[in-house]
Design a protein that fits this description.
Layout lengths: L5 H15 L4 H17 L6 H11 L4
């Protein structure tokens, strides 16, 4: 699996913060690996648009 860069991780954490409406980075970091592995498994890129779409699905029940 592709290892995301620090910038991609920060973008993902910010997306999670926005979706969950929280500033708790520790809570957000719990979901980062799941979002990246899901994105990788569907063959998506790690752009902000793709990460946001995947995060919305992964976090819909949180």
């Amino acid at each position: 699996m592709y290892k995301p860069t620090e910038i991609e991780k920060r973008n993902c954490i910010q997306i999670i913060k926005d979706i969950l409406m929280t500033d708790d980075v520790v809570e957000c970091e719990k979901y980062v690996d799941n979002i990246f592995s899901t994105t990788y498994s569907i063959g998506g890129d790690y752009s902000q648009e793709t990460l946001k779409a995947v995060a919305e699905i992964v976090l819909k029940d949180v």
